[in-house]
Specification:
two-stranded antiparallel ribbon, 15 helices, about 400 residues
């Protein structure tokens, strides 16, 4: 009897009964979640890195557009979802980034009736400066954002889009005016992200323009994702959420509300500027009208579908909203009721707007937390099952 007591006493010591075992199981599950999430992210990125060896140009082009949109959606989600500042002017900051890149890294064009100038800087320098100029534009607008809230801020930011289109059309030497201007190819340390210069074969697969751009977009999107996750999971993220929930409570707890709102505009507009650069690289030529109010609405749809305040949700929403028009256009002949624009019936672009518009309504009504909320619900179900199955 004494042997039994002696052997069982270490396992049944103070605080190690059934409640203690359950608490230990919960702690183990909480410790495993970050590691599991990191492994899933690494696996997902690894799969994306392999895809260019198997995908056609259509899917590579679509994927690069998704990477660029995901960056912009993350930036808007920081402003709207995390900080609670409604913005309808995201298209303006994309325009600043895209047009600034063309002006900084492009060459001058003196021929024709609509000449424009270019500084001819290295594309990497042009990209970095374009992102900085976009951030500066957001910082200049932040004092207005600090004074306005809700719908009033949304309307004020909406004015940026219309003013921006007028200003860029007037500054035709920079933007190319109504006719726009071509986008210089991106290059990095002499390596051009184009069809040639140099010819590139990897495992007997020819890497042309969009194979190369795929990796550029992937690296930038993953970097922006990780930076946003780190920032929002740290002290800045807690401060921004406090500002969103209650400015008075945040101020009482030592948060400089005005400074953090300005930082949110700065970071969001820098993300938008980088997204604008990738948008320009994806379409090959830009004009001020390329960044109309419809772009801002699409980005709002992305973050609502993905889930306000969720970085991963913003990426998922960007993938849906951005890829849908491409896919419908590619398979328009196989989908009943769709037609080419201008030929009567419902065009693929209209069908895409109907689809993600209906998706936004369904999400708001049935899943207010978006795709991220659905994912969290599935994780919670899995955790509960794991805790029930764990030995006590």
């Amino acid at each position: 009897m004494s042997d039994t007591t002696t052997q069982s006493s270490p396992a049944a010591g103070p605080g190690t009964g059934a409640p203690g075992a359950a608490a230990g199981t919960r702690r183990a599950l909480q410790l495993r979640r970050p590691a599991t999430g990191s492994l899933l992210l690494i696996l997902f990125v690894a799969v994306l890195a392999v895809l260019p060896f198997y995908l056609e140009e259509f899917w590579l082009r679509t994927g690069f557009a998704v990477f660029g949109a995901a960056i912009g959606a993350i930036g808007l989600n920081i402003l709207v979802g995390t900080t609670g500042q409604l913005s309808l002017g995201h298209a303006f900051f994309l325009a600043v980034g895209g047009i600034s890149y063309c002006w900084l890294s492009g060459e001058s064009n003196d021929s024709g009736s609509h000449p424009y100038v270019g500084l001819g800087l290295p594309p990497l320098v042009g990209m970095v400066l374009a992102v900085g100029i976009s951030g500066l534009a957001g910082l200049l607008f932040s004092p207005i954002g600090a004074r306005l809230k809700g719908l009033y801020l949304g309307i004020a930011s909406l004015g940026l889009v219309f003013v921006g289109i007028h200003v860029f059309n007037s500054a035709s030497e920079v933007s190319g005016g109504h006719n726009g201007r071509t986008v210089p190819d991106f290059s990095l340390f002499g390596f051009t992200f184009d069809d040639t210069d140099p010819d590139l074969y990897v495992l007997n697969v020819e890497f042309e323009k969009f194979e190369r751009l795929w990796y550029l977009g992937l690296v930038l999107a993953v970097g922006c994702y990780l930076f946003a996750r780190a920032a929002l999971n740290g002290r800045p993220g807690r401060a921004l959420r406090a500002v969103r929930d209650s400015e008075i409570a945040a101020s009482v707890n030592g948060v400089n509300v005005t400074a953090y709102r300005a930082r949110a505009f700065l970071l969001s507009s820098m993300y938008a500027g980088l997204s604008g650069v990738l948008f320009a690289l994806a379409i090959g030529s830009v004009a001020p009208e390329s960044f109309a109010i419809e772009i801002s609405v699409q980005y709002l749809a992305m973050i609502v579908l993905g889930g306000l305040g969720s970085v991963g949700g913003a990426c998922a929403g960007a993938a849906f909203v951005t890829a849908l028009p491409y896919v419908l256009r590619q398979y328009a002949e196989s989908i009943p009721g769709l037609s080419e624009p201008g030929t009567g019936g419902v065009s693929y672009s209209e069908a895409a707007r109907y689809a993600y518009g209906a998706a936004v309504i369904l999400v708001i009504v049935f899943w207010p937390s978006g795709l991220a909320g659905i994912a969290r619900g599935l994780k919670a179900i899995g955790s509960r099952r794991a805790s029930r199955q764990a030995p006590t």
